[in-house]
Structure formats: C-alpha cells, structure tokens
Design goal:
Elements: E1 5-7, H1 26-38, H2 43-64, H3 71-80, H4 83-105, H5 110-124, E2 127-133, E3 136-142, H6 147-164, E4 171-174, E5 178-184
Antiparallel strand pairs: 1-2, 2-3, 3-5, 4-5
Helix pairs in contact: 1-2, 2-5, 4-5, 4-6
C-alpha cells in the first residue's frame, strides 16, 4: 500500500477564460487594488476570488438563511456548551446541512456534502485541508474556537460519515483549535468528481 500523503487536488485551474469589461466606480476599483496589493496578488486575481466566492457560496447564503456571526460570539458560546447541547445542535443542523446540499448542489450524497462543507469553511475563513494516504482520507479542519467546538466538529463528521457509510469507522485527533478526521474512502475518492 502506498503510504505517501498527498493533498486532495481541487478542480483544475486551467479553465477556459474570457476577457470581460465592467464599469465600476473608481472608489471600488481603488479598494480592490489596495486589498490585492495588501495580499500581494494582482487585482485580477483578487476580482476572480471575489467572484468565485460569490458564485460558490454567497449567492446561496441569503436563500438558505446563513447569517454572519462574529467568531467571538461562537467562541464564548462554546465555552459553556454541555454534551447534551452539542448533541442538540447536531440534531438541529443535520437536516439543515441536507437541505443546503440539495439546494446548492442539486443532489445529496457524500461527495456533495463534503464539498459543500469545504465551501462553507472557505467562505467562513476557516482553514481546512484534505489529504490522501493510500485508502485513507484525512480531513483537517482548523476552527480555532475551543475544545467544545472540536467535540462538536468531530461528532458532526461522525454523523455525516455514518449516514453514508454506516460500516466505516472514522478516527479523530483533536486539539482546542483543530480536528483531523481520518476515514477510508479509497484512493480514487474525490469530492469534486460526481
């Protein structure tokens, strides 16, 4: 068995492109250029990132009832969460995730569910990575919200994988800010190919 760990490849970036011209207020263009300069990227890359985020997530956010919540509020709420409250939140969020995946992706299966969660984390500014080691897939989530949110994340991932793969066992490593969920999905599994 190949024990090399490799990162899950996202859809190829060599997509067919087309040049377009938009008329934008000078102040808006200057803000985009300043932000791009601060991030050390071109304003073209910055504009593309903004548009991709809109197409992948933001255009759905209002329709599915997503509202931005300051990280400090989640951090504070997490400190006092009990095991029963974590279970209650998971029971409430599971059908919301299903509805969201159906609405955004048009079908509900493991690949679309994982891809939607990745889209959500990227839109929320959470760091995540997907690495493959032979048959094993490691889903790394860095939320930085405290140990109770790590417990929540682990339990939520357990529920999602159990729904689609009832006989599979997921292993987790957690810290106060990071969860690594490991499960055998096969060497050719990709959440971006369905």
């Amino acid at each position: 068995m190949d024990s090399t760990i490799k990162r899950q490849q996202h859809p190829p970036k060599k997509e067919k492109t087309r040049s377009v011209t938009y008329r934008l207020p000078v102040k808006l263009v200057e803000e985009i250029e300043t932000e791009a300069m601060n991030k050390n990227i071109s304003h073209n890359v910055m504009a593309r990132q903004i548009l991709e985020k809109y197409v992948q997530w933001d255009r759905f956010a209002d329709k599915i009832g997503i509202i931005p919540v300051p990280k400090k509020i989640l951090d504070t709420l997490g400190i006092e969460m009990t095991a029963d409250e974590i279970n209650e939140i998971i029971n409430v969020i599971k059908p919301v995730i299903k509805d969201t995946v159906l609405f955004i992706k048009g079908k509900y299966d493991l690949k679309r569910c994982i891809e939607t969660l990745e889209d959500y984390m990227r839109a929320s500014g959470m760091k995540s990575d997907h690495r493959i080691e032979g048959e094993l897939h490691h889903f790394i989530i860095q939320h930085e919200l405290g140990s109770n949110w790590s417990i929540f994340t682990e339990q939520l991932l357990q529920e999602i994988f159990k729904e689609f793969l009832p006989d599979s066992k997921m292993k987790c490593q957690t810290t106060e800010s990071t969860v690594i969920a490991t499960i055998a999905l096969g060497g050719d599994f990709s959440e971006h190919e369905y």
